[in-house]
Amino acid sequence: MSLPTIPLLIDGKRVESKTSQWRDVVNPATQEVVARVPFATTDELDAAVASAKAAYKGWRNTSQANRMRVMLRFQQLLRDHTGELAELITREHGKTLPDAEGEVGRGLEVVEHACSIASLQLGEYAQNAAGGVDVYTLIEPLGVCAGITAFNFPVMLPCFMFPLAVATGNTFVLKPSEQDPSASLRLAELALEAGLPPGVLNVVHGGPDIANAICDHPDIKAVSFIGSTHVGTHIYRRASEAGKRCQAMMGAKNHCVILPDADREQAINHLLGAAFGAAGQRCMATSVAVLVGEAREWVPELVERARALKVGPGTDRKADVGPLVSKQARARVEKLIGAGAEEGAKLLLDGRGHSVKEAPDGNFVGPTIFDGVTAEMSIYREEIFGPVLCMTGAETLDDAIAFVNANPNGNGVALFTQDGGAARQFQNEIDVGQVGINLPIPVPVAWFSFTGSRASKLGDLGPNGKQAILFWTQTKTVTARWQARGTGPSGVNTTITLK
Q1: Residues labelled as active-site residues
Q2: For the packed helices 82-92 and 64-80, what is the interaxial angle rounded to 10 degrees?
Q3: pTM of the model
């Protein structure tokens, strides 16, 4: 029996690619090839962009009320199809079903926010600003926009992009990850079912060639990217040099600082969940714990609690840690674990070679914990993107803040304490874009912007919230004078002054 092929989505229709280049989509828990995904041709990308360009003429002039109603129907469809989307995520990504359902929920938040577009896309107005002159702004869409997403959140990351982009009147071309494309495609189909006209949202698949073609295409006005630092830096430069607006949310090395006065049970539970959830394949995963003072005494309990976490296929609802997305990802993570041990870090819990009886061929790495990690070690410098927690100590909160601020990345950081003064000092002095206080993964609700900083971000504006509205729109300022005939200023005015 032939394998199912993942279609493109162009002009509101499923399109079978004519490419000669295909990639297997593999279930990471079983190594079963579940589908084949095409690497679209340049002509197919051109067709998607042409469809989006043609649709833009009508969609930008569709009323805010009607765009809002589409988003309202879309959010209901997302609720109704949460289970279906979660199963697709688990089958191709590997994360546990409860985690996949949570991902759909975080994507749903953005769609719910987009339902308020009528109040979000408001301009400013000044009546009689100068001598009968009114000044006002129009918040207008850009045109055809594009998004390139990573594998680790095949529903949430597209939701960080196209719902607000199309709600503000743009049309869109999405290139999801080729490693787990089915959930992203199904998400787009639900948006069309909700009422987006043909061409408003298109999906193409592919690798670097299609990503480069998106950056270069003259009819694409803005590009949003979420993924690795290496690829994001390339995308940002290439798209910017082509005159496009671009945002790139990239790599991270997120820290969790634990003070000895923290609620011990709460802090340990949250740290373990943030370090090992989704097998560490989150850009906001907590990969470094900084234990301050007497909190160092918690290390043995941390290790034993991590050892007790259940590793298994994502379809097992009792599993805490699923497989890594690919054999290559597993090999890379295990290589870095070996490097950490060779560089002198204390390997307190080794997840290499972890086998799961019910899924013997899965890409599993068990929870891994290092202690005594220093800033020079490769396991600290590199984003491991696996279930590996690096631990280090600090004498004081000041020392911990200095350690975190010396890291070049600035995606997220957390502090656990019961001391309000310490929390205030931390949030004021830490140089990281997203800060959690007694919360391990400080991804804000969708009506606040995702505000990673420093080496974790290129571009002034991030996804979600007010910044996303600014990113997907441009401001047009109108200065107008309407007066009864014969009542305006007389004579020629050669100065710059409004009279």
Answers
A1: 283
A2: 70
A3: 0.96
